[in-house]
Amino acid sequence: MFASKAKRRISIATKFNLLTILIILVTSAGISFFLVHNVVSYKYNSLVRHGLVIASMASQTSEYYIYTGDTESMMQLIESLEVDEDVAYVCLFNKEKKQLMHKSFKYGLKIPPAPVTRFIDCSPQGKILYKEFFNKENGNRYIDILSPVIIFADKKPTDILVDNQKGINPEIAGYVQVGLSLENLHKRIKQFLISALAFTSFFIMVGVILTLFLTKRITAPLKKLNSATKNISEGIFEQHVNVHTNDEISDFAGAFNHMVERLRVYRDQLRHTAFHDPLTNLPNRNLFMERLERLIEHAKRDKNCAFSVLFLDLDRFKVVNDSLGHLAGDKLLVLIAQKLEECLRKSDTVARFGGDEFAILLDNVDDDFNAKFVAERILEILKDPFVLDGHRIVVSASIGIVLKGEFYNRPEDILRDADTTMYRAKMNGKARYAVFNTEMHASAMNFLQLEADLWHAIERSELVIYYQPIVSLTRDEIVGLESLIRWQHPQRGLILPDEFIPLAEETRMIDKIGHWVIQKACAQNKVWHDMGFSNITITVNVSVLQLRHRELPDQVRATIKSTGLPAGAFKLEITESTVMESRELVLEIFKELNDMKIQLMMDDFGIGFSSIHSLKNLPFSTLKIDRSLISDIAMNPDASAIVKAIIDMARSLKIKVIAEGVETQRQLELLRLYQCDYIQGYLFYSPMKAEEITNILRQRNKPASDTNSDITREFITLWGEN
Ligand code: C2E
Ligand code: CA
Ligand code: CA
């Protein structure tokens, strides 16, 4: 829009120069014109006056000679006028206007036959007339002057000369004609004009030089300021405008420099904020990525460039936040950031990516200083407890390492692989590091594909529930069924929950899937109840995230209502580690579920560190001893001692015990010996589809006469109620 209107750019200096030169020209032209005009007219007038004086003197002198007819004296008079270089010719006439004599002083100049001025205009009062004319023959201009020769009737001409008295009755005795040449005048004017021109040129030259000098003094600093402003608009703040003119421009430059200085400070602050984590003041993800990208580029050019990337995630940092509060969590992060920096060289970068995630970039790695060495050092220094508000806190971290960053093309890829590897370290048991290999990448890709498929699994009815019977040792009957989800993947076949439940948890699909399991399991148990197996309690595993997202109680309430299953025939299994991590949350959820008469079971008991005390204060009716302990009891006396202790303790607290993962007869014998209440495991039954369970129930369980059978009640007895 502006381009069409854009005029040709004229710089300030050009405008300023043009204006000043114009002023100088106009002034000098005005002055010269005025001078020339005055001088020329003055010279012309003085020449005319000069001619008039000559003519008047000649007419007075010749008065007597004309009167007496003395031609010789007349000639002498005429010749005496030759000395005046302006006089070109002289003529004398008698009163009858007849030429008496004449003389031309210019070579070849013809005297006009009659005076240019007319005789008739000459009066006896002595009026002298003149007129300028152009002589075509020699191309010169002349002034022709005609002066009357006056005599007085009452006096002789000599008397007039002697006593100088004013005569009376004048009359014309003749005429004197004098021709003045303008040649000399023209020459003189020409000379004057030349010197005037030279003077004016000199004046203009001086003016122009002065203007240029002045312009330079005014516009040079402006130019400097202009280019400095352009630089700023392009983001170049590292500059200083040097102007020392002792005037407003100098003030302007000073203010400008000050402004640039402040802008620079703001820019640096802004840059710092944009590239640093406000809590720890470490570089943030953006800066890390920028440096990583630069290093990748460098590695492409320099084959000796070797660098590694570490991705670090604190283990169970959430516990610190939840138990000591976010402020303490923040303080801990700052302390950890300091410790990480201590482990590195100045040239390395440690960045915080947010939360409890850190990334480290090691440049110039070699045999001595390499990623594994740094990871070991970090794990080692983290072992020292941190003291926070009087609490001693031990943190650990899981670290993923990409050893050869130089083989990558994109920073995101390095980070992705370091992240994947960090997960591997976590899965391998936390507080350790893992080094990336390509197999990990494949499994990560697999994970992504699986995630995409999982979104559709429910709609496509690919999810199925298997049920694993729980047998009562005292009644020798199936009293419960654990719901275990599986995914019938169209390409990959049956996928077990350990493979996709973590994925569902990460993507929040767990709420939807968990809800589906609750609905399915409850409906299925209602079917079995209706078949007469009303002593069967169904259990459903819930993830800690389902508890956190708070949708669980409503989901259970709605399902119990819609299926019509008695609340006592449904239980939730919560792992010991979930209980330990989120005690408050479990208590809250328990209260809500308790109102609906739904009970909780502690799953995978014995591998966490629940104290007897905490168990006593938690509202669990049943606990399930973890498979790993059960599998050891036949061989490991410690394991069997622990299992026995757990069973004894539970009995004293009136909590029922299930042993899971029972695979051998020997294990069963021991558990029977320890008076374990219920058994679950391959020894009796593997998880099976609902139809198979129906067949087994028909063979093994007698349909109960009423829904409140002893066994069911025994199984669901709430600790403390009896
Ligand atoms: P879990 O709660 O500990 O479930 C018991 C697991 O042990 C099941 O594995 C079961 O098949 C297996 N098992 C049973 N008896 C034996 C035995 O004698 N020997 C051995 N070696 N294993 C036995 P599964 O079905 O693969 O489930 C794995 C885990 O997935 C479960 O561990 C549970 O934590 C989780 N899970 C299963 N279904 C769901 C669900 O619907 N929601 C949630 N949130 N988690 C689920
Ligand atoms: Ca379970
Ligand atoms: Ca278990």
From TrEMBL:
Keyword Membrane annotated: yes
Pfam families assigned to the protein according to its UniProt record, in alphabetical order: EAL, GGDEF, HAMP
Keywords: Membrane, Transmembrane, Transmembrane helix
Transmembrane segments: 12-35, 192-214
Domain GGDEF intervals: 305-438
Domain of life: Bacteria
Domain annotation HAMP: ranges: 216-268
Protein name: Phosphodiesterase with PAS/PAC sensor
Organism for this UniProt entry: Candidatus Brocadia sinica JPN1
